[in-house]
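User: My collaborator sent over this chain with a note saying "see what the structure looks like." That's all I know about it. Can you take a look?
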Amino acid sequence: MIKMLNLSASGGTEKTKYYMSGEGSKQDGILIKNKFERLSLRANVDQEISKKIKVGMNMSVARTLTGRTTSDNDFGTPMQIVALAPITPLHDENGQLYDRPVTTYYNPLLNAANGHYTSQYSGISVAFMDNGTLSKA
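Assistant: Without extra context I'll predict from the sequence alone. Here is the result:
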């Protein structure tokens, strides 16, 4: 399932212009425990101080959260369940997941049930600019 929301606003006066936007998204992956979430905000402001001097600022903030199972090179990923025979029991008589239901493969549902693999990124970017007149002064 994918949920996404985008909002933006822009406007200003003859000498001042602004633009603001925000976005939020949330996706569930096709594998167990896979997910992706992102929030971001952006703001731009431009100001004409005089006919010769124009300045501006751009700012953005973002946060990304990723959830997953173990890496794809591991025999514990949910995709490895296709290597087990269809009649292989995944649970014991007490309802607990078998570690190795057969001698050849690990039960990939153990990582999905017990593993928590998440990574988070947060970032802020700010830039100031002028039309070149301030650096010549």
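A starting point for your reply to your collaborator: The radius of gyration is 26 Å.
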